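Hi, here's the filled form for the chain we discussed.

Project: internal
Contact: R.S.
Residues: 109
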Amino acid sequence: MIIPAQGLRIVLAVRPVDFRCGHDALAGLVQNTLGLDPHSGLIVVFRSKRADRLKILLWDGTGLVLVYKRLGRDGRFEWPQISDGVMHLTRVQLLMPLLVRLTVDQVAR
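And the returned structure, exactly as it came back:
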């Protein structure tokens, strides 16, 4: 399990992405669509259209790291309303939905 350091910026790309994209394509989306630097040390979370998978892209100082999570049968990540842009998350908001079946909104309360 990768645990983000305190104070690390975590953003949620709220629009679904093509999950055939790899490291470089997702880094390009971060830079060109979200207007952020994928090599700045931030963590970017992407979701699939069906909301049963997510990819987490981060720069660890030496290269891009891509983490992939697929939920089991009938599993779905609860996602905020789809719109353009990003949503900023805390460490807890990122980790809790990955470890237990909570939504980002439930953790924010």
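Let me know if anything looks off before we file it.
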